[in-house]
Design brief:
This protein is mainly alpha-helical. It has 4 helices and 2 strands. The chain has helices at 7-14, 18-25, 29-36, 44-54, and strands at 3-5, 62-64. Pfam families: HTH_3.
C-alpha cells in the first residue's frame, strides 16, 4: 500500500500517547491502533479530526510513495 501512516511519529514528537489521543477522539485505544496501522484506512473525516487534535494538517498524517 503506497499510503503510510505517520501518526506514531507525530505522537512521539508531540509527546502524546495513543491512549490520550483515543480519549480526546472519543474512540477506543484499539480503534485508534487500527487506524494507525491503516487497517482499515481511516475515513477522511477521521483524518481531519486526528489532524485537528494533533495540531497538524491531514497531509502531515500520511506518507505517500508510488510503487
Amino acid at each position: 500500500m503506497p499510503l503510510k501512516s505517520r501518526w506514531r511519529i507525530i505522537l512521539a514528537e508531540k509527546e502524546i500517547t495513543q491512549k490520550q489521543l483515543a480519549k480526546e477522539l472519543n474512540v477506543t485505544p484499539q480503534q485508534l491502533s487500527n487506524w494507525i496501522r491503516m487497517d482499515p484506512v481511516p475515513r477522511i473525516e477521521i483524518a481531519f479530526k486526528v489532524a485537528k487534535a494533533l495540531g497538524v494538517t491531514v497531509d502531515e498524517l500520511f506518507d505517500y510513495t508510488e510503487e
